[in-house]
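Shipment paperwork, digital attachment
Item: protein structure file
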Amino acid sequence: MFELPEELRLLKKAVREWALKRFDPQLALELEKREEFPFELWREANELGFLNVRFPVEYGGQGIGLLADAIVTEELCRVDSTLGTAIVLGNFSSDCLMLFGSKEQKEKYLPKVTSGEWISGGAYTEPAHGSDITSLDTRAVKEGGYWVISGTKTFITNAPIANFFVVLCQTDPGAKHRGQTMFIVERGDPGVETTTIHGKHGIRCSLTGEVSFSDCKVPEDRLLGQVNRGFYQFMEFLDKSRIQIAAQAVGIAQGAFDIAWKYANERTAFGQKLIEFQAISHKLAEMATKIEAARLLTYRAAWYYDHGTIDPALTSMAKAYAARVAVEVTDYAIQILGGYGYFAEYRVERFHRDAKITDIYEGTTEINKNVIVSFLPRSKVLREFMLS
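Attachment content:
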């Protein structure tokens, strides 16, 4: 696949045109300072159908697929890393319902997500364990027709504003990761409390917080998927969500490159344009090459996913590489702009701060490298090219 079909080219154009028209850099700065979610823009993006392209038609989506979603994510984050990231993460973890939900669960929750009525969140990470998702302190115990959940989750995307969460709990304490189960917990359920975590390095319009469960009773029909299969369901979810984060990283990198390219072609120093200095032109060439490599890797992973081949090695390659590219390219962009790059008005400093999280969430780059090495010998896509 070296050329996007017409449908996706038109989608890409429509998303970019809307974002260029509606994403005001000054608004992004103001919302970031106040750490506020861009509700109005998020609702508008939902109304235009940009955020539901990967969801099935029967639940209010467009059913186009994950590659379409990657393109939407890339373009939104390219125009503005802060607003774009917050908007695309408004439906975070609702994919778990698509993958593992019952017909009744999908009918109840997904139309609310695809219409922009509800925001979703995923409660997985815990204060004492971080990336080690095999160990959980949050417990769910069966009592009659309910499951009672107790514990705390941290660094939870959309914690202060989500209408419901997908929560990963330990249901068999002696079985570690083999004894974990997913549940759907709504904000209004008794025993649910959320707090906001302030002062993040970047993506400050995407709100983050803690979610605490104190003897929270949820009916048994809120169990998501299978009992004691939650860890494996979470791993399957990551194979999808890591592609989305890779697209976010590509968009941020491209946006920073766009600013640096324009600046290098307009700014003069020592009697010539910056781009005429070989040191600058080579840096821009390296940036463009890395972005294109990250984009193709991300698109390839999304294309294979849409065609039924879920390859953890390829997915983790896309996420890990794109994240590193985003951090490096945004750093280069600041260097090209010099002193101006260090100030908010020129935006690349914000792109740089927003890029770093792609190196951390959905599994750190180190975790993703572990996944690559582990799954490479079994990769359906990569084995024939890399291993004899």
